[in-house]
Amino acid sequence: MNRLLIDTDQSECYDTFGQKVPCEGSRQDGERRTVPSDGERFQVLSDTVSDNWTGLTWTRTACIPDGLCDFESASLLAEKLSAENAFRSTGWRLPTRWELFSLISHQIINPALPHDHPFTDVSPVYYWTADSSARLHDEAWYIHLGGGRIYRGKKHGSYMVWPAIGPAPCQDSSLPRFFVDHTLVHDRLTGLIWLQDLEMTRAVKWHEALEKVYEVNRRRSAGFDDWRLPNIRELESLVEIKSHSPALPQGHPFHSIQEGYWSSTTSAYEPRYAWVLYLRDGAVGVGFKSKPDFFVWAVRNHL
Q1: Assigned domain for 14 exists
Q2: How far, in Å, CA of 259 to CA of 262, rounded?
Q3: How buried is residue 259: exposed, middle or buried, by Cβ count under 10 Å (0-12/13-18/19+)?
Q4: Shared domain check, 207 and 178
Q5: 73: part of which helix (H) or strand (E)?
Q6: Which pLDDT value is given to residue 223?
Q7: Is this model's pTM higher than 0.90 or not?
Q8: Which of residues 139, 165, 191 is at a domain's end?
Q9: Which of 113, 129, 174, 258 is in Cβ range 3.0-4.6 Å of 97 for a Cys bridge?
Q10: How far apart are CA 214 and CA 220, in angstroms?
Q11: What is the model's pLDDT at position 234?
């Protein structure tokens, strides 16, 4: 997985009350911003857009005629566009959850797309993905283009369609995704290292979560500050949507898994909230920063 796709574009930092604070020393996502300028990413080809980071092609407009429909109709509409050579292209389909999430900005809202993106007619509403819920078979995943939330809804509901072209990302299956070194789990897909035993079994407030990771540093890294609270894309990269309770890959090596985990990423939609991964199904939502509702899962990069 491209490192750019597990970094966010968040460049500002906020306290528990949603007020902007200096990023330096905050331990928040915005302090670590590494994503390059957005001008290097998208290439406009008349009425389609090529994404150089993912290899996907999207319609430039996110408002397709008859594109507000139920899940079955959404899939049929994408097939129809392909058969009709719409936008002078074939191969149109509903994007996977991962593919649509790859477009989301965590710094900009309404729509939650990167700065200077070239798309038109993007509505701040839910858009279908191609993926059904593993636990609730009458529901499918959709993503809110206003703020970036990932959730599931009844397939008979009406949501927007934004088709894409391109091969879905695949993992090299010749080796298992995770390997364990003592109590550390190395992820071959992302290059990240996670704690195998999630250790911190008490739910905490968001600012406590940012601080508690440094307890891990003192215990495990001989004073080196390399453990941190993951950003929301790093957390979401662990999700396997074909699984549930928890929504992690089959045979994963993690212990003591809890329901929800704080990220270091503030919600730009409402900065009193931070992004949270809910592991029962793999939903990406938010938690109120001042409430002790979620847990801590420390991560670090390979040295």
Answers
A1: no
A2: 11
A3: middle
A4: yes
A5: helix 71-83
A6: 45
A7: yes
A8: 165
A9: 129
A10: 10
A11: 97
Using alpha carbons only, give the angle 290, 230, 113 rounded to the nearest 5 degrees.
85
**Domain boundary pick from 119, 138, 165:** 165
Helix (H) or strand (E) holding 77: helix 71-83
Burial readout 102-112 (b: 16 or more C-beta within 10 A, e: otherwise): bbbbbbbbebb
Confidence of residue 217 (pLDDT cuts 50, 70, 90): confident
pLDDT tens for residues 3-55?
Answer: 678 999 999 999 999 999 999 999 999 998 766 655 689 999 999 999 999 99
Q: 21 lies in a domain?
A: no
Q: How confident is the model at residue 301 (pLDDT cuts 50, 70, 90)?
A: confident
Average pLDDT, the chain: 91
Phi and psi for 234 in degrees, rounded to 5?
-65, -45
Residues 6+ apart with CB under 8 A from 106: 8, 9, 10, 29, 112, 148, 231, 232, 233, 265, 268, 275
